[in-house]
Amino acid sequence: MSSIKNIIFDFGNVLINLDFDLTRIEFAKLLTIEGAITTRQKLFDEGYASDYETGRISEAEFFEAFRTCSGQKDLKDEDIKSAWLALLLDIPFERIEMLRALKKEYGIYMLSNINHSHATAIHEYLEKEYQISEEEWRAHFDILYYSHEMGHRKPEASIYEYMLEDSGLKPEECLFIDDLAENTKMAETFGIKTHTHNPNENIIEVVNNLLEKN
Questions:
Q1: In-domain check, residue 26
Q2: Are residues 157 and 103 both part of a single domain?
Q3: Where in the sequence is the domain holding 119, given as residue range(s)?
Q4: What is the spatial distance between Cα 11 and Cα 5, in angstroms, rounded to a whole number?
Q5: Per residue of the chain (214 residues), what is the pLDDT tens digit?
Q6: Strand 107-112, strand 6-9: pairing
Q7: Are both 172 and 132 inside the same structural domain?
Q8: Among 66, 85, 104, where does a domain finish?
Q9: Structurally, how many domains does the chain consist of?
C-alpha cells in the first residue's frame, strides 16, 4: 500500500508551462538588453521581487519599483505588465483532468511562489479557455497556497512550516513536486517526500510513476 496520501504540486513548469525568455525579450524591447538585465538584478537585490511575491507590496507599488530600478519613469503600467505576463503559456487540459482524477484518491495541494499579476492572469486564462472560475480552480485542491497570499515564499523554511501547521498534513504522507531543487531540498528537511520535476517530461507520466513506486 502506498505511503503517499497527499500530493503537493508547484504551479510554474509543473502544471502551467512557462517561458521566462519571453519576458526577458519583452523587457529588452522596453529597456534594451543591458537595461533589462540591470533592472531585473536590482528588483531582486533590493527585495522588490520578493516583496511582491509575498504580498508585501501591491502591483502598483511593484510597477513603480520597476520604473525606479530601470530609471525609466515614463514607462506605462500596461507595458510593464504586458512584459511581466509574457512568460505565462498554457495549462494543458489533461493536467486539469489529472488533478480531478487524483483528488478522488489523494489529498491535493498547491504550494506556489506567485504574485498577484500572474495569479490574476492565470485565473482569467482558465475562465476564458476552459470556463473554470477562480473558485472552481481552487476547488481542484484541498488547499491552494499562493505565496503572495501567505506572506512566505519557497525555499524559506517558514512557508513549509506554515503549510504543515495550517493543513495538519503529516510530512511522511506527502509527496511534493517542484521544478527547482532548492525548493524540494528544503521540503525534505521537514520529512516530506519530494521529486524535482524536469519540465521537459510529461507530468502525468511522472506522477503515475512516482505513485507506483510508493
A1: yes
A2: yes
A3: 6-16+91-213
A4: 20
A5: 468 999 999 999 999 999 999 999 999 999 999 999 999 999 999 999 999 999 999 999 999 999 999 999 999 999 999 999 999 999 999 999 999 999 999 999 999 999 999 999 999 999 999 999 999 999 999 999 999 999 999 999 999 999 999 999 999 999 999 999 999 999 999 999 999 999 999 999 999 999 998 7
A6: parallel
A7: yes
A8: 85
A9: 2
Burial 172-199 (b: 16+ CB within 10 A, else e): ebbbbbbbbeebbebbeebebbbbebee
Predicted confidence at residue 213, as pLDDT, reads 82
* 1 lies in some domain: no
8 Å CB contact between 170 and 197: no
Residue 44 lies in a domain: yes
Query: Is there a single domain that holds both residue 75 and residue 122?
Result: no
Residues 136 and 48 in one domain: no
In whole angstroms, what is the distance from residue 214 CA to residue 133 CA? Answer: 33
Separation of alpha carbons 177 and 163, rounded Å: 15
pLDDT per residue over 47-98, tens digit each? 999 999 999 999 999 999 999 999 999 999 999 999 999 999 999 999 999 9
Is there a single domain that holds both residue 12 and residue 30?
no
Amino acid, single-letter form, for residue 148: H
Give the distance from CA 121 to its chain's centroid.
13
